[in-house]
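Async update (no meeting this week)

Hi team, since we skipped the sync, here's where things stand on the single-chain job. The sequence we agreed to prioritize is pasted below, unchanged from the tracker. I ran it this morning and attached the output directly underneath so nobody has to dig for it. Comments welcome in thread, and please keep replies under the output.
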Amino acid sequence: MADNEKKQVVLLVDDDEDFRLQQKLHLEKAGYAVIEAYSRKLAEELLKKEKPDIAIVDLMMEDKDDGFILCYHMKKMDNPIPVILVTAVTSETGYSFGASNEDERHWIKADAILAKPVRFEQLKQEIDRLLP
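Output:
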């Protein structure tokens, strides 16, 4: 990437500090700028000042549905951004869901859902699919 090219910005929202650090290192190595939040509330504050190109959001943070709420808020913005929801809900609860069809995307509000543990290759594939 040339010095004069603007990096695409990824908002990374997860209460797991190790997950955020690992993904931030991968994302920066891949050429992205990363802004981080450890909670839905902090992410909402950041979104008042920042305009990321894409967001990677954990489903279960302080509250079990924080990721759903944050996705909903991001999709209600004037210029909604693509959202990748990452979650360990299936391994923790046995409940499985996805965003593969219009009905699921309608209520989930995420553009993609990935199960934790997430390999960076999976994440990068979804980012490439969702960003121009």
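Quick observations from my side:
The chain has six helices and five strands.
The chain has a mean pLDDT of 83.
Reply here if anything looks off.
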